[in-house]
Amino acid sequence: MVKALAPVSTERDLRLDLFRGLALWLIFLDHIPSNAVSWITIRNYGFSDATEIFVFISGYTAAFVYGRAMEQHGFIVAGARVLKRAWQIYVAHVFLFAVYLAEIAYVAHSFDNPLYTEEMGVLNFLANPDVTIIQALLLKFKPVNMDVLPLYIVLLAWFPPALWLLRRAPTTALIASMTFYALSLRFGWNIPAWPKGMWVFNPFAWQFLFVFGAWCALGGAQRIKPFVDSAVVRWLALAYLAFAFSIVMTWYFPYLATFVPKIVSDVIYPISKTNLDVLRILHFLSLAIITVWFVPRSWAGLKSKLFWPAIVCGQHSLETFCLGVFLSFAGHFVFTEVSNRLPMQVAISIAGIVIMVGAAALVSWYKNTERRGPRPPAAMPATAGGGAP
Amino acid sequence: MKRLTLVLAALLLASPALAVPPAECQLAQHLLDHVFPLPHTARAIADKKLTVLVVGAGSSRLPGPKGPQVAYPARLKIALTELLPGVAVKVATDVTRHRTAAAMVKSMKAALAASKPALVIWQTGTVDAMQAVDPDQFSDTLEEGIVMARTAAADVILVNAQYSPRTESMIALGTYADDMRWVALQHEVPLFNRFEIMRAWADFGTFDFTSAKDKLAMAGRVHACIGWLLANLVTEAVKPGEPQTEGAR
What we know:
The complex is a heterodimer of chains A (about 400) and B (about 250).
Chain A: H1 14-31, H2 50-109, H3 129-137, H4 148-157, H5 159-168, H6 170-187, H7 203-223, H8 225-229, H9 231-252, H10 262-268, H11 278-294, H12 308-315, H13 317-337, H14 342-372
Helix pairs in contact in A: 1-2, 1-12, 1-13, 2-4, 2-5, 2-7, 2-13, 4-7, 5-6, 5-7, 6-7, 9-11, 12-14, 13-14
Chain B: H1 2-14, H2 23-26, H3 39-46, E1 49-56, H4 67-70, H5 72-83, E2 88-95, H6 101-115, E3 119-123, H7 126-130, H8 135-151, E4 155-159, H9 174-186, E5 191-192, H10 194-203, H11 215-237
C-alpha cells in the first residue's frame, strides 16, 4: 500500500464517546414530541443541534476504526465491514419501523376528536399498509424522527471509496466533499421521499460533516490544531455562539426581534436543517472549538465516575441510539395514553436516560465477557475500546 | 351524554361571552406576542368599523351543525365585539379543509376583494406539513400572502398548527413551525402561537386533548379560548400609538 495517513493516536479519545453519549441523550429528549424537558437541549440555544455532533463524531470514529482496518486488511475487507455495519443499521431501522407502525396503529384506532378532523387525514397511509411498508423498506417512507438512521446508512454505503480517498489524498477528499455539498445546495439535489417531498436529512449535504469528521480523525485534527487553538479563533467562535444565541432568543421573545436589523434577518432565514445550512455548520464548529478548549484530551474528568454514564452510551452508540428511538416512541405513547402533564414529562425523560445507560452498561459488560470468554484474549482483534461506530 | 354535550354547547353560545374571560384562557395569555403593530386594524377600530378575514383550513372549523357557531372565528367576533365596545365588528371566513398555504393564497385575492378586511388572520401549516410541501416554497408562499394582504390594506396575523398529541409522531410540524416564526419575524407580523398555547394547556392539565370524554364540548371551549386570545392579541397590538378612547367599561 502507498503511504497512508495513520490514525493519530492508538488510544481512543474519550471525549468522542462522552459527547456522542450526550448527543444521544439530547436526541432522545428532542425526539419525544412536545417534551418540556427538551428545553435543556442545545437546539434551543443556537442554530445546530445534537444531530451535527452525532454525525461528526460518527464520521470521526468510522474513519478511526475502518481506517485501521483498511491499513491492516486492505480496501476490500474494510469496505465489506463498513457495508456490514450499514446493513446492521438498516435492519435496526426496519425493526424500529415495525415498532412505530404498532404504536400508531394503536394510537389511531382510538382517535376521533372534533378538534382534529384535519390531522386525522394523516392516518390515510394506514389504509394501504402494503405500499407503506415497501416504501419504508426502500427508505422512502420515513416516520417523523426516524430520519437519522437512513442518513447514516447512505453515508456508510458511500464511505469505503470516501475513506480510500481520504487516506490517500485527504485534502482532495475534503475539497471534493465540500464541492459536492455546495453543488447539492446550488442544484437542489436530494433523495425523494414517499408519499411526497424529500429526505429530511439531505445526505448530499450532510455527508460533508461526516467526511469532515473522518478527515479530522485521519490527521486533519492535527493540521488544524494551531488554528483551533488560536486566541482569535476562540474569540470568534464565542462571538458567533453569542450571535446565534441572541438570534434564537428572538424566536421565543419576539419583542427582541426589533433589535435585529432587517438585513440580518433577510440574510439568515430560513436556516435549513434538511440541507445543513452553513449557519448550522459554523455553529457546530464554534461549539467544537470552545469544547476542545475547555475539555482537553487529557482532562482527568473523563475518567471520573460522573461522566461514565454518557461515555458508556457513546461507546455503544448504535444500540443506544436505537433504544433511544424506541424509548421516545414509548414515551410519546405514555403521554397520549396515560398523561402528558409536566411531572410525567420529567419522569419519562429521566427514566429514558437511565434505561439507555443501563442498556449500554449491559452491552459493555456483555462485549467484555465475550472478549475474555472461553477463548484466550489474544485471539480477539485489538480494537481501541468500544465497538464500531 | 349527547344531550349533556348539547346543553354545554348551548350554554357556551348563550353565555354573554367573555367580559371576564375564563381562567383557562388567561393561563396562556403570556404567550401572546403583541410586539408588532397592526396599523390598518388600529385605523379601522378608530373608525368604529372593523372587518376581519379568517383564512384557514380544517383546524379553523369544527364539525357538526353547530360547528360554525362554536368554532374560533365566531368566538373571535363575540370577543372582539365585547372588547371593542362601539365598534361594528364583522368576521368573514375563507375556511376550507385540506388546504395548503399555496391553495389559500390562490383564493386570497378574491376573499380580500369580497370582504375588504383590515386584518387577515391566516391559519396554516398543518396541511403543508402533512403533504411535505417543500419548506422553502412554503416560506415563499407565506411571504406572498402577507404581501398580498398588505397591498390590499390589511394587516396579517399568522396562526400556526394546533397541538395534536396523537398525531405528533406522524406529522412533522417542526420545519413548518420554524418557517412561520421566521417569516413572521422578517415581515413583522404577529404570530399567534396556537401550538404553544395549546401545549401549555396540556402541560398544566387545563384541557386534556387525549381524553375520550366530552370531546365536542371541549373542542368548543378550546375554540372559545382561541377566539378570545386572538381578540386579545388584536386589542393589545393596537394599543400603542392609537389613543384608546373606549377603554372604560
